């Protein structure tokens, strides 16, 4: 279970991608819409990946629902998380029940085709961010806490581990870290009492299996983006909040990561800060550079005991239980959840 998660370009694997997947430094792969033609093709692609990597390897996707759902035809269209409380007409208890079922539905449909994790749920607040918006459950941190916990419960009931993002909160900055370097200039108290409070609450309840830090700078705390910051990852997450789950970097190809330098420097910054696995997406040359850097530097960059801890954490992200013995179409819970999702749309 190596420290790099990469992607592939098409519906099938190229010879170069096969060689990269066979490298022990590669521990995961993230799929995108461009990798999906139909369900049979996707299953064949996953099977070809597993034939190289085996099962001790994380296959992931961003499948939150709403506008961030990579696979559509053949999958239930999960509504945006912001729709849940509205559909429940403000009834928090009912909204929690809906969130459980949508979390289970999202997870079970992926697990049934041998995808291990969806990077979900979003724990950001819907304050002013153009890239977050209705991906968030709400602008109210207390409501986000309870609905996210319910969504995570549903994922867990299906057998999937969760990844909360984007620590310590991306929802209160307008800029999109995919194309800019966002800076959250608010004072410490505002961040701690609003955005960060969602993460601290769920961490205190041991709800989170993994976290993905934001490519956002919070000058009141540190001058580095959270994903490159030993302060945020080691001091706050590991030492203060006692989080022992996986920390995935956000995509090192995003503009928000460019503050660290080239791909070599971004990789070094993320792993030195304490990330367990770095993601490189939508940039084949960047993948080559990162893998080459790791081949020459990983052993000296990260101490052996820390490498072993990362491997153990990453192993824990694999599915936790058997899926379903019967086809989904014969499963009553799936039928009811699909109906819920359809009505919510």
- Radius of gyration from the alpha-carbon trace, in angstroms: 19 Å
What is the terminal separation in angstroms?
Answer: 38 Å
Low-confidence stretches: none
CATH topology: TIM Barrel
Q: How many runs of DSSP E, i.e. beta strands?
A: 10
Beta-strand proportion: 5-15%
Order of helices and strands: EHEHEEEHHEHEHHEHEHEHHH
Main CATH class: Alpha Beta
Name given to the CATH architecture: Alpha-Beta Barrel
Coarse morphology: globular
Question: How much helix, percentage-wise, in residues?
Answer: 40-55%
Q: State the fourth-level CATH superfamily.
A: Glycoside hydrolase, family 3, N-terminal domain
Which strand order does the major sheet show?
Answer: 6-3-2-1-10-9-8-7
Look at the structure and give the mean pLDDT.
95
Number of helices: 12
The total number of structural domains is: 1
* Sheet of most strands: 8 strands, parallel
State the secondary-structure class. alpha/beta
Description:
The chain has an 8-stranded parallel sheet. With 345 residues, the chain is an alpha/beta fold. Helix 4 packs across helix 12 (332-344), helix 5 packs across helix 7 and helix 9 crosses helix 10. The protein has helices at 15-21, 39-53, 83-87, 92-111, 141-158, 188-193, 195-204, 230-240, 263-273, 284-301, 304-315, 332-344, and strands spanning 4-6, 26-31, 58-61, 63-65, 68-69, 117-118, 163-167, 210-213, 246-251, 277-279. The mean pLDDT is 95.
